[in-house]
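Input/output pair, single chain:
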Amino acid sequence: MIKADVRTQTLNPAKLAVLFKKQFELCNVKQEETIAIVSDLGTRTEYIEAAFAAADMLGADIYELKVNMIPGWTKVGVPTIGQCKGTLEALKAADMILIFHVPLFASWLREVRQAGTRVQMVIDAPDDLHALQAPAGLKEAVLHAHQIYEKTRQVHVTSKAGTDLTYECGEYPVMSQYGFADEPGRFDHWGVGLIHTFPNEGSATGRVVVQPGDIVILPYCRYVQDEIQIEVRDGHIVSIEGGLDATLMSEWLAEGKEHDDDMDPYAISHLGWGLNPQCRWDSIAMYGSTPERSHAASRCFPGNFLFSTGPNSQGGGKRTTRGHYDLPMRDCSIDLDGVRVVDAGRLIDPKMIVPRERR
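Output:
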């Protein structure tokens, strides 16, 4: 029997309660607030126990709501809440939700956030929760990048490999994550640090050249092995050429089509870049391709350009397609209204650069 190359966990499980307490403090959890856990059949039991212990230390009330499913990483927008009577109302009444699967692109998430409930997502392995937890200064760096991106009207992304993509901004809001949900209505993902927005409809055009060493983080967790040449016109991918990786991408997006003329999987989705210095491009090489070790680390390493396709409902758009593809790319340069903020995969705006902490 061939065993997968998965590294042994190095974090002492007994430290999880202290780690969750620190995360709750980052999230401004106060005494007598109510935390609602949304777990599923695959959630780690030790995470629930650690969250209960951390809430007790802070004097907060906490309970668990377990859904009868195991939501997959590869399908976004799965409505895990709302079908059982009373669940949506209960979550809207909580001060914070601690959720252990991906709620993005689901309508219920928008409803609870509009009610003022903050939402903290936890989907990474224990070692990553420790290593990637937001370092000092990350929130300020992300918010600085957010403000600049919010004012931007045209973006130009290039690379020596041949990427030459332009798109316009302003139709959809900029979304930023710095790792903790500390304000009413905020959603965040423990371990990340990035910003993105959805381009104006039909504005994205040009060429994207994905190189070996770039990462497909959704639906797969793998380094790209051979070049993918993507042509974009009027906001949609019109051709995908290359070898194995191009075939994987083409067939996954085709599988997301609802009918023969459905172009939603090929639409350009969220575009942005990573800022968390704790995140590592080499995480897959270091720890294996288990998604739990790559959700945050491979998505948010500083200076990557995150290219994606498919849905835009999270930003207020109408596309809810299952054909979603996420590609953190290395060595790209990003110009915002003619001002360069990332040069060949390296952050050059000093206010976006955060020192890495040794842990």
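Residues 45-58 form the longest helix (14 residues). Helices lie at 16-26, 45-58, 87-93, 107-114, 126-132, 138-151, 244-255, 283-287.
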